[in-house]
Structure formats: C-alpha cells, structure tokens
Amino acid sequence: MSQDTVACDKPLPALDGLSGQFYGWCRQGELRFQRCTGCGAFRHVPREMCPHCNSMEWEWARSSGRGTVYTWTVVERALHPAFVNATPIAPVVVEMEEGVRLLSTLVDCAPADLAIGMPVEVVFEAVTPEVTLPRFRRAAR
Ligand SMILES: [Zn+2]
Q1: I want to staple 72 with a disulfide (CB 3.0 to 4.6 A). Which of 60, 92, 120, 124 is the partner?
Q2: How far is CA 110 from CA 9, 23, 48, 66, 137, in A?
C-alpha cells in the first residue's frame, strides 16, 4: 500500500464555507480549529454555533498538531471505486490535545501496528494544488 500515490484520485473535501477555511489553513501548513471566544471550547467539524454555550463568536486557533489515536477501523474491501487499490486502509480518529477529534489516516503505520493512545502529530499532504490534507505520523513520547 502506498498512501502517497493514491491521494489525487480520491474524493476531495468541499472547499466552500467554514470547511474551505479549515482547509485553507491546512494549505498554509497550519492545523487550526474553531475556538469559541465566549467559553473557550474548541470544536470540530467547523460550524457556526458553539455546542457548549451557543455563542456565535469564535476564532481559528492554532492546534499544537499533537494528539493520540482515539480509535480506528480497517477497511479491507473498498466501498468506493477510488479506493480499490488503497486497501487495506485504516481511517483513524485522532483526539487532539485541544480535545477535538479529527478523522484522518497515519502515513507511517500499518493497520496492524495501530494502538489506542498512540501519540501522533500532524503532517500535511498536498494532494492537489488546491487541497492539502492533514494526516498524522507517529510521535515520540
Ligand atoms: Zn462556547
């Protein structure tokens, strides 16, 4: 499996609205999440209202880029034609230090080597000139 060679033929995220802003930061090599300026809570996926205090006021706050593997699954059989040559693939939910969770994949870890609580850090992969995806690699700790 080569995760680096499969990216461009995959479905890509929508780049409009708040999602577009999130991926715009990624394109600049920065992982940022919305942080409520009312109560300070981070949130992801991007949305207008804070789920904790209902405030509509927020900012894009830079993440440390560090987190741990919260959970994952191993996809053995592709459910989309673009992933036929990418299996097995392990979509991973990373719990960031800020408390939000992000669905991604690891660039340097076979599915059999994944472990809950494994420290990871973000890396950025430009899959098209317009789209850069946040992915993760193992981190020392
Ligand atoms: Zn809030």
Answers
A1: 92
A2: 21, 26, 36, 19, 11
